[in-house]
Design a protein that fits this description.
The chain is mainly α. The protein contains six helices and two strands. The protein has one domain. Helix 1 crosses helix 2 and helix 5 packs antiparallel against helix 6.
């Protein structure tokens, strides 16, 4: 909540509300692959409002394909979940909304990848998305899976 008030009660922070919409969508999609229309439309509005491509919400789009179409996002994925603290101690709530959208994409692609038979193409896509998750966590691709620190 922000420090502003409306009639004595704290006014809702629009960036906090946007971030919460994205996290509710993330939770809903992790536990049920069916789209929740209201969360999807609200998430689309948030993503477009912060200047991100709607492809971030497409569960079929790999992070690689999103980054190929929008190369400026590659740097935003690096260290995404390990942000540097602001020098003045204030939180950049608008940046948190962008991070929530990007983090939701990589988390859903890795942890809500479906079940059943997996093709070689799907496995390769998942491995690539797992590499993006490692980058988002501040690691080198392969490091979390035990491949980054192995000697010869």
């Amino acid at each position: 909540m922000s420090g502003r008030t409306m009639g004595g009660a704290p006014a809702p922070d629009p960036d906090e509300n946007r971030r919460q919409v994205l996290y509710w969508r993330l939770l809903a999609r992790l536990f049920d692959p069916e789209e929740q229309a209201s969360l999807e439309s609200a998430s689309l509005a948030v993503v477009e409002d912060v200047g991100l491509p709607s492809a971030l919400l497409d569960p079929q789009a790999s992070v690689d394909s999103v980054v190929q179409r929008h190369p400026e996002l590659a740097a935003e994925f690096d260290g995404l979940m390990t942000p540097e603290p602001d020098e003045d101690g204030a939180r950049d709530r608008a940046a948190e909304v962008r991070r929530a959208a990007l983090a939701s994409k990589v988390l859903l692609n890795v942890f809500a990848s479906g079940s059943g038979t997996v093709t070689a193409e799907q496995l390769a896509r998942w491995q690539s998305d797992a590499g993006w998750l490692e980058r988002a966590l501040g690691c080198r691709p392969g490091e979390l899976r035990g491949g980054g620190n192995r000697a010869g």
